[in-house]
Amino acid sequence: MSAAKPALATLASEMVVNGVSKGFGLGPLHKQILHECSFTLEKARLSVMIGPSGCGKTTLVNLLAGYETPDSGKILIDGTPVSGHGPDRLVVFQETALFPWMTTFENVSYGPRVQRKLSKKVYEEETMRLLELVGLLDFKDKYPSQLSGGMQRRAELVRAMINQPKVMLMDEPFRGLDAMTRALMQEYYVRLFEEHRGTNLFVTSELEEAIFLADKLLILTNKPAHVKKVIEVGLPRPREFSMLTSREYQVCKQEALELLHEEAIKSFAAGAVSSADFLEAYAQRGQEQAVTTREDSDTAIQKEEALR
Amino acid sequence: MSQSSMYGFNWTKIRKKIFSLATLRGISAMVAFTVLWELCSHFSVPIVGNVPPPSSVLKELGQQLVSKTYWVSWVDSFMRISIGFVIAQVLGIPLGLLLGVNRTARELIYPVFEIMRPVPPLAWVPIAVIFWPTNELSMMFVTFLGAFFTVVLNIIGGARSIDARFIRAAYSLGSTRSDIFWKIMVPATLPSIVVGMTVGIGITWAVVVAAEMIASRSGLGFLTWQSYVAGDYPMIIIGMISIGVAGYISSALIRVIGSRMTPWLRTF
């Protein structure tokens, strides 16, 4: 990664979610998605939210981003209630939202270009610096359709980062990427975070990814969702893939699996199909723990080679 | 994408394209078709044999290629097409965008538009001849109509099917409403504009030829009809072939313009 210092100072903020509830539909069709959901995203920390699939994670992200408003409860950014959407809270979505008609360079520099706060020279330099940081400098004049899935996500990451949002919201951004690309993206992302130290919320349904990235884990319950437990991840930074074999990681994983399993059982009782995945994951836990050690150090080596 | 293909002509590529298997096949088919046609005439095959043979058509064509009237027909038809088509774009693109983006405008204008749209442009010929001062203007008008409705309809469809993700992302990144329109909606609609243009130019030729047969004293459509009236059969075929070639040239031109307008859709 580049050793160049960020040209602009990072503005990190604290985001507080206090007793937020949200439902959709009227009368008998009403479905409560979130119930009394409370948590804090501390300044300059990476919080990872994990929960059963379909539990309302995306709804929560939409609320934080301001695309929707909560039925009750408060969302505060540095003590001020959020209203509407804006470049202070940026979302990187599950599916790519790069503009197909703009080149990578135009996409990444879009934010500063329309906000008209920085001079052209400043934001163009910043765009180049960020593109270099994520290895896309050679692709700056390509259109999104000419980039691979991994490159698109990286472009999207820096398109959000260049605006120096107070809070970055990542809604399962690496979902659908193949295992190798996904691991590379995790590495890029964790480096970007460690260099810039913004306030980040990363939503995922992959536990391994969650622990590797997180300062703290927010474990969600089933629908109607709220935060079931917060687990502090004590792994040191900068993060390395080799840490996935450490004792600290295993303890964390064990605890999280326990909690997720409880939720899976509940949703299984409620008849949700997705819970089957969690039951299976839980059953494999014992065997996996024996295997992880070897496998992870192998992939870590491959990844480092690929990065060179 | 190499520099040369982006900013000018890549001659190696063009040469490869011209001397390709596809070109060879195309030419062989045309030759085979001509030979078959000649044979049909020669052996007086029923019905098909009544068509003048290529030999006499080619002989006539040789004379026509040096005749001034023949080329004036080309110019006249092309003028009508170009003017009608360009005005259809100039009026149709903004109207299509307005109807696609603005709900009030759509609800006000769309019903009237939808009643007028199914009326074939040729059904407009009589009224056009009545209210335009010259036949030339009335023909340009019906040509315009042919392209106009297609363009507007395509743009409405394109503008309304813009993915909400893009609008959301653009607002999040700090866009104003005018940024959304100019930087997101307009480029997102460009592919539909190109489709409208491509379909529109085809309709335009169909319309202008028929209109010329009814209300004109010049142009390729008139040339074809006039030859029929005069009993000059090879000349009818020349008129038809000329219309085919002219249509092909204008479509090719639109394709080139269209691909310049939407560089991100080019296949590399």
Structural commentary:
The complex is a heterodimer of chains A (308) and B (268). Chain A has 308 residues and is of the alpha/beta class. Chain A has a domain at 15-88 and 165-234: Rossmann fold (3-Layer(aba) Sandwich). Chain A has helices spanning 57-65, 104-108, 110-115, 120-133, 149-161, 179-196, 207-213, 247-269, 275-307; strands at residues 15-24, 31-41, 46-50, 72-77, 80-81, 89-92, 167-171, 199-204, 216-220, 227-232. A 6-stranded mixed sheet of chain A has the order 6-7-8-3-9-10, sandwiched between helices. A 4-stranded antiparallel sheet of chain A has the order 2-1-4-5, with helices on one face. In chain A, strand 1 and strand 2 (31-41) form a beta hairpin. The longest helix of chain A is centred in the last third of the chain and has 33 residues, at 275-307. Chain B is mostly helical. Chain B has 2 domains: 1-51, no CATH class; 52-265, MetI-like fold (Orthogonal Bundle), CATH 1.10.3720.10. Chain B has 12 helices and no strands. The longest helix of chain B has 39 residues, at 177-215. In chain B, 30% of the residues are buried. Classes of the chains: A alpha/beta (308), B mainly alpha (268). The interface between A and B is medium-sized, with 27 and 22 residues.
